[in-house]
Write the structure tokens for this entry.
Amino acid sequence: MNYTFLINSLGPDRLKKDEPLAKHTYFKLGGPADYLYEANTLDDLVAAVQSAITYKIPYLVIGGGSNILVSDSGFRGLVIKNKSKEIHLKGFAGGVEKGKLDLKEAIVEADSGVPANHLIRYTLDQGLSGLEDMLGLPGSVGGAVYNNSHHLGHLFGDHLIEVLVLDLEGKIKKYTQAECKFDYDYSIFHKTKEIVLSASFQMKRGDKDSLWEVANAAVKRRATTQPLGAPSSGCIFKNIPLADAMRIGTPDTTQSVGYLLDKAGLKGLSVGGAKVSDVHANFIVNDGTATTGDVLALIADVKTKIKEKYGVDLTEEVILL
Ligand SMILES: Cc1cc2nc3c(=O)[nH]c(=O)nc-3n(C[C@H](O)[C@H](O)[C@H](O)COP(=O)(O)OP(=O)(O)OC[C@H]3O[C@@H](n4cnc5c(N)ncnc54)[C@H](O)[C@@H]3O)c2cc1C
């Protein structure tokens, strides 16, 4: 691949050559990217994607790297690490009371590179309700929109009203919430391969103290149910379909794949340095010596065992690159 034009366009000092992607993923796994570029602003992000399109270089945009499993051979092309960071109130209803802004309802717009937690804390500080259950979600706004990330039955796209994207020709385009076709672990961007630039959320005022209470409870719950100290990419598999849960007769027809893996006795199962977590059976953790190959072999082993035991076909939630 000829990178000369891309290097001239983005600037040699802004590009890292043969950058190990293990440094940019929560799993601490993944071989080198031919080039990695850090986009610090939306303008950077747009320029990098447009350059890659113009010079026909394969590109991949990542946010926090918390939901990806990158191949040991890495990525041939340009990886763009999205660190755009602006959040602002785009519109609001309310007034000024005792010299303070008294919001009744607001539209908050965030760049796609904003860490989801920064956005959530911002809305909590404004006393805006809707994202409080998600506090503790790793990764970026862009990654959470892409996969419609979820927690405790709430979906990231629930309060979203508009998304700005860059299409495959490098043109900016708008999507409404309905056009995003949000579903469990899905948005239309899986199909269109467009790049999320920013997202706007419409949120109503709530009681600040109660919102923080819910948010802190969500964080506490994560700390007690997830192996947060160990490198992982969160849940490996999607929850099982309701029909399977009913057929198997899970308690309260839970669709939790973690429950099923635990029941099958798979906690602690390992391949090389990759192990099914003892804390949460739907997490695979890297003991520091794992390769992506180890994780893939363990995923295959778990799928085979669950198919044999319960006749369920598991599908990956983690995105394989
Ligand atoms: C400890 C832990 C806990 C987790 N808990 C949860 C949870 O409760 N609920 C949940 O749903 N997930 C959870 N996850 C998974 C993950 O954090 C979320 O899916 C998160 O939203 C991914 O965001 P990211 O920026 O890290 O995406 P990345 O991992 O960087 O990317 C994921 C995918 O999104 C694409 N993408 C990223 N940015 C953009 C963009 N701007 N435009 C278009 N595509 C883009 C990437 O190309 C890739 O295909 C957890 C992960 C960990 C490690």
